[in-house]
Amino acid sequence: MNAASPITPSQTVGPFFGYALPYAAGPEVVPAWRPDAIRVRGRVLDGAGEPVPDALVEIWQADETGEVHRRPGGLVRDGNDFAGFGRCGTDPDGGYWFSTVKPGATGDNAPYIAVLVLARGLLKPVFTRLYFPEDDAAHAGDPLLGIVPAERRATLVAEREGERGYRFDIHLQGERETVFLGF
Questions:
Q1: pTM
Q2: Fewer CB within 10 Å, N side or C side of the chain?
Q3: Is residue 29 a part of any domain in this protein?
Q4: Residues 57-74: pLDDT tens digits?
């Protein structure tokens, strides 16, 4: 480096190349018209409680019987079947949504949806789980929830919104920080 070259500060990864990451059918794990469809929505918030308008939220889950789709075409969206995977970019208010089904239990786990968040300032995605409030009895035997401190478990449980809706806000930092998993 010569004396004329300015030193530049380090940067986080980005800007992100968004081609094909968010896509129109991404939030539709199942079509909303299915009788067993539920809606999961929420916001991604930073440590100050401000919305993160450019995050990407992915979900992975079992179907309503607890089957994890691993067969060819299990992630294909044909407009009728369960896909097992969804992806949604956040809006200017940090909001995201998915049309999906409530998963069945897998193994000793209470029913849950695996959630992955990519956002500015993160060099790697963060992972968490969304559990359902009506499965409180199953939460007691869930291996993962069993190791989360009792005072933090509520950050992993969605709030019920009407008959077929759930709200799950994801706090990346701060007092209400969502519990994230290390792999």
A1: 0.87
A2: C
A3: no
A4: 999 999 999 988 765 554
